[in-house]
Design a protein that fits this description.
binds calcium ion, TIM Barrel, binds ligand C2E, 14% strand, Alpha-Beta Plaits, alpha/beta
Length: 626
């Protein structure tokens, strides 16, 4: 396929030809005037001027980035005729001047013809259909002329001219091949032989220009293999490479005619579909093609005696001529593809505006979160935890972010972003430090709690500085008397990490006196055996179960099971999200020990918690506090 460089090359030759014809042409005009053949020379020169105007027009008409396929092909066809015409004109002037041997003009004509052939073989080397006929147009009359001299030197010259024709063709062929090779290398991926990113962006731009003209639609599929890195890491890059080649083979088989496939890099591929008159039809076809591709890619692979399975996540965006930027469509497909990844991989999503708003919001949060700590927008709230007698025996610290632009943002929104960006380390340290200070201050003011819980994000927990950082802060703020009040809440997702390392870190901190609680228990994917392996002290029943107590027999059974299991494993148990007297009643009857939820109090600012603590009168549990 021809790329931008090809057309640029041809485009650049146009002014060279015009210059090479207009100026030497003047010399011919002058010679014609000197030797009484002015009229034909003049007519010829007028033709050259007309051709030059045509050429200038062609030169100005070219703009690769905005041309549709149709317009570009037409332009190139015109260029081809332009070049033929110009060389025909040079063959013509040769025929006129070569007969003038009395005036010795035939020497000049012969030299011109050879010169023009050399020019043709070097400047038209981009296209066989250009240089081959042109070299013949120029050289054949010369060969015939030499032959017709009828003397021995004429035959020798004819033979030389034949040889020269061959050499010129050979040279042009070689340059042509080099150019093709260079173009191929610059536009293809070496491993899979597919087009590369650079080519694809050009292709997409051309495609958009075509769609803009026809008012049609097409689609873009961004395909990312799921967990390809695992194959590479566990079986080596050799197997990884072969797998990619196999994947490409299957893509090629399954993609309908008229689609273009490229490799964007790594395990990412991109495909443009056919053109459709209606958007709806285009969308339907995009989803159908994607489903077929996924199904085909998921069939097992056998590589070096390994049986491999791989799935793919596909993001779809619909292309039309309306956008100016090819990259924007790739970005849309990328957003849709990440949506698939976020929803558990192995599937297709079509981009929509709502996705893009979410991404914008995400980026905005990410940007502003960087300044949140320095601008003191991050604070902690504390939610009371009460025992069976209704005494306040603990607190869970919950982070709050209030931004002047965005307003209050939920930790469920910004904590995952902080984890992705790595900001959680700094943020987590700040939360630890603020929490420790509060615990110390409360102790000094006579607010005695049995436990003080802090949520620890997985990324923070597994970071290599975590233990050292905790030790440093404990020494600064807590000391031996308060450290045993600390509980770190971790979530079940932690078992997805290297479980031995997790246990190691937990034990290091436990040796220090810190306890651990399993947060949101029952919602994640931890098994009982994992739960048993981890050195836990407490389990928190997720609020979704507590919430559903009144509605659902299954949830009631789940809560009872968790409570029984906790007592067998000698774990403390906290019910979170207790909102009603009925829920509390049920939990009390089933021997739950610690309660937390709106029934007693929402998470409170530091002073609010102090007020709650001092004014709370232990009493009948199931009665709403006054
Ligand atoms: P979580 O650890 O499960 O925290 C409990 C969440 O439930 C809190 O939401 C709390 O306000 C809310 N809640 C408490 N009682 C009730 C109730 O009776 N009914 C209902 N419907 N909700 C109740 P919040 O503060 O928005 O925190 C959400 C999540 O954000 C937390 O869930 C935790 O996973 C994360 N998070 C909060 N603070 C931190 C933090 O300092 N560090 C880390 N790493 N994560 C945090
Ligand atoms: Ca928690
Ligand atoms: Ca929780």
């Amino acid at each position: 396929m021809r790329d931008k460089r090809f057309y640029d090359f041809v485009h650049r030759q146009i002014p060279v030809f015009i210059t090479l014809s207009l100026f030497p042409g003047l010399g011919y005009l002058f010679l014609g005037w000197l030797n009484d053949i002015f009229t034909p020379a003049f007519v010829w020169y007028l033709l050259v001027i007309a051709g030059s105007i045509w050429g200038t027009y062609l030169y100005r008409d070219f703009d690769f980035d905005t041309m549709s396929d149709y317009r570009r092909n037409r332009w190139y066809r015109h260029c081809t005729w332009f070049f033929y015409t110009f060389f025909l004109l040079w063959a013509l002037i040769f025929l006129v001047y070569v007969g003038q041997d009395a005036a010795k003009l035939h020497y000049i004509a012969i030299f011109t013809e050879i010169g023009a052939s050399v020019v043709a073989s070097s400047l038209l080397s981009s296209d066989r259909r250009l240089y081959r006929p042109t070299i013949f147009i120029l050289m054949v009359p010369l060969i015939v002329y030499f032959f017709l001299i009828g003397e021995w030197y004429g035959y020798v010259l004819a033979l030389f001219a034949c040889t020269l024709t061959w050499v010129l063709l050979y040279a042009a062929n070689s340059s042509h091949q080099l150019l093709m090779q260079a173009t191929h290398q610059a536009t293809h991926d070496a491993l899979t032989g597919l087009h590369n990113r650079q080519f694809f962006i050009e292709h997409l731009q051309k495609r958009m220009n075509t769609l803009a003209e026809s008012g049609q639609f097409s689609f873009l599929l961004l395909i990312d293999l799921d967990h390809f890195k695992t194959v590479n890491d566990s079986l080596g890059h050799d197997v990884g490479d072969q797998l990619l080649q196999n994947v490409v083979l299957r893509l090629r088989q399954r993609v309908p005619d008229g689609c273009v496939i490229a490799r964007l890099g790594g395990d990412e591929f991109i495909i443009t579909g056919r053109n459709f008159a209606e958007r709806k039809v285009c969308e339907r076809d995009a989803l159908e093609v994607s489903e077929q591709l996924i199904a085909r890619l998921k069939e097992p692979y056998v590589i070096d005696q390994h049986h491999l399975y791989i799935s793919a996540s596909i993001g779809v965006s619909i292309i039309s001529g309306l956008s100016i930027n090819a990259n924007s469509f790739i970005k849309e497909a990328d957003i849709a593809m990440y949506e698939v990844k976020a929803k558990g991989r192995d599937g297709v999503f079509m981009f929509n505006e709502e996705m893009s708003d979410r991404v914008d919001k995400h980026l905005e949060i990410e940007r502003l979160l960087h300044f949140a700590l320095a601008n003191q927008e991050i604070t902690l709230h504390y939610q009371p935890q009460l025992d069976r007698e209704g005494r306040v025996i603990g607190a869970e610290s919950l982070v709050r972010w209030n931004n002047p632009e965005l307003g209050p943002i939920s930790p469920t929104q910004f904590i995952p972003i902080a984890e992705q960006t790595g900001l959680i380390i700094e943020l987590g340290n700040h939360i630890l430090e603020t929490g420790f200070k509060t615990l110390r201050a409360w102790h000094d003011e006579g607010i005695e709690l049995d436990q003080f819980s802090i949520n620890i994000s997985m990324r923070q927990f597994t970071h290599h500085t975590f233990v050292v950082q905790v030790e440093k802060l404990v020494q600064r703020y807590l000391g031996a008397d308060l450290i045993h009040k600390l509980i770190f809440e971790i979530t079940e997702s932690i078992v997805a990490e290297d479980i031995n390392r997790v246990i190691l870190v937990m034990n290091q901190l436990k040796a220090y006196g810190i306890r651990f609680s399993m947060d949101d228990f029952g919602t994640g994917y931890s098994s009982l055996s994992n739960l048993n392996k981890l050195p836990l002290d407490e389990v928190k029943i997720d609020r979704s179960f507590v919430n559903a107590l009144a509605l659902n027999e299954g949830d009631r059974a789940m809560v009872v099971t968790i409570l029984n299991m906790a007592s067998i494993l000698k774990l403390n148990i906290v019910a979170e999200g207790v909102e009603t007297a009925e829920q509390l009643d049920f939990l009390l009857r089933h021997d739950c020990r610690i309660f937390q939820g709106y029934f007693y109090s929402e998470p409170l600012p530091k002073e609010g918690f102090e007020h709650f603590y001092r004014n709370r009168k232990p009493g009948l549990q199931a009665a709403r506090p006054g």
